[in-house]
């Protein structure tokens, strides 16, 4: 059996995905997924599902939600959602949950990028991004933990997207990613790393004037929104492009332009394994 929550909360027993009926039962199953292999106490489930003032019948409602989930899963004997002392446990291999697969692929993809293995990084990060099918837990009742994890997964997805772009830059696919970078920047206009990647892609594709225009656009957005100048790395990249005479070709010129510009990744935005991400600016850039 497979489970997913990077989008709707669903399960799969064959080739098809099936929903869990009910707003709160879906939230309960999602909470169990996040702690798969560990017991989640009834008390915690009550606090998650009713963070304000839980009803007097909260414990009974939890039991009913578990029964609804078991019926949907075909788990009549309680082998998948097991009843344990004081709570419930989702018993399934961690790799059967899309969120676990997502984090594994990101960790391995970014590690490959650190090692300079661009093809492996591209493959891993592409696989991670393909797991998304909407906002995490989108059809479940909001709870404190689900909301916090939504923010975390969203930031990890952004890191994966930027790493995926970086891998393709290293593979020389400059022209292919310009449109994608424009789309990402429309969603996250204050992420300076994306601006740096756009400048590099344009410059490496022989579009030096457009690369410099991208810097001016980035500076306009950042100064207007934050009242600050672009980060030092982005300014250094602009200067490197300005002074590049193109004698070694645009690709080598772009490589020199960003050499050593990403040695101090933003610790807040760094992935869970602490690996850095080579880029034109720190991964997170400024707040979005």
Give the topology, please:
Blueprint lengths: L1 E3 L5 E3 L4 E3 L3 H12 L4 E3 H8 L8 H16 L7 E4 L2 E4 L7 H17 L3 H13 L13 H27 L3 H14 L4 H13 L3 H19 L5 H12 L6 H9 L30
Helix pairs in contact: 1-3, 4-5, 4-6, 5-6, 6-8, 7-8, 8-9, 8-10, 8-11, 9-10, 10-11
Organism: Spongiactinospora gelatinilytica
GO molecular function, one term: DNA binding
GO biological process, one term: phosphorelay signal transduction system
Can you walk me through this structure?
- This protein has a 3-stranded antiparallel β-sheet, with helices on one face. Strands 4-6-5 form a 3-stranded antiparallel β-sheet.
- It contains 11 helices and 6 strands.
- Helix content is 56%, strand content 7%.
- The protein folds into 2 domains: 2-94, Winged helix-like DNA-binding domain superfamily/Winged helix DNA-binding domain (Arc Repressor Mutant, subunit A, Orthogonal Bundle); 173-288, Serine Threonine Protein Phosphatase 5, Tetratricopeptide repeat.
- The radius of gyration is 23 Å and the shape is elongated.
- Residues 253-257 and 259-280 have low confidence and may be disordered.
- The protein is mainly α and 288 residues long.
- Helix 8 packs antiparallel against helix 9 (208-226).
Cα end-to-end separation: 37 Å
Look at the structure and name the CATH superfamily of the largest domain: Tetratricopeptide repeat domain
Q: What proportion of the residues is helical, as a percent range?
A: 55-70%
CATH topology descriptor of the largest domain? Serine Threonine Protein Phosphatase 5, Tetratricopeptide repeat
Taking pLDDT < 50 over at least 5 consecutive residues as the criterion, the unreliable ranges are 253-257, 259-280
Strand order in the largest sheet: 1-2-3
Output the radius of gyration: 23 Å
Number of strands: 6
CATH architecture of the largest domain: Alpha Horseshoe
């Amino acid at each position: 059996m497979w489970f997913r929550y990077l989008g709707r909360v669903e399960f799969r027993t064959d080739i098809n995905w099936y929903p869990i009926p009910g707003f709160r039962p879906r939230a309960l199953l999602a909470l169990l997924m996040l702690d798969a292999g560990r017991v989640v106490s009834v008390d915690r489930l009550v606090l998650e599902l009713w963070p304000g003032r839980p009803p007097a019948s909260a414990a009974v409602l939890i039991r009913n939600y578990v029964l609804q989930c078991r019926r949907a899963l075909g788990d009549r004997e309680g082998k998948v959602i097991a009843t344990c002392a004081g709570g419930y446990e989702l018993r399934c291999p961690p790799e059967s949950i899309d969120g676990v697969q997502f984090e594994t692929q990101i960790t391995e993809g970014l590690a490959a990028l650190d090692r300079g293995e661009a093809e492996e990084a591209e493959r891993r990060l592409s696989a991670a991004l393909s797991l998304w099918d909407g906002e995490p837990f989108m059809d479940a009742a909001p709870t404190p933990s689900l909301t916090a994890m939504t923010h975390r997964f969203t930031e990890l997805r952004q890191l994966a997207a930027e790493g995926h772009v970086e891998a393709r830059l290293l593979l020389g696919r400059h022209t292919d990613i310009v449109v994608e970078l424009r789309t990402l920047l429309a969603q996250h206009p204050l992420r300076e790393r994306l601006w740096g990647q756009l400048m590099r892609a344009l410059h490496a594709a022989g579009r030096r004037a457009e690369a410099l225009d991208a810097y001016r656009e980035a500076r306009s957005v950042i100064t207007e929104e934050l009242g600050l100048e672009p980060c030092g790395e982005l300014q250094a990249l602009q200067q490197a492009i300005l002074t590049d005479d193109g004698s070694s070709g645009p690709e080598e010129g772009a490589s020199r332009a960003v050499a050593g510009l990403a040695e101090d990744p933003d610790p807040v935005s760094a992935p869970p394994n602490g690996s850095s991400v080579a880029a034109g600016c720190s991964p997170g850039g400024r707040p979005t």
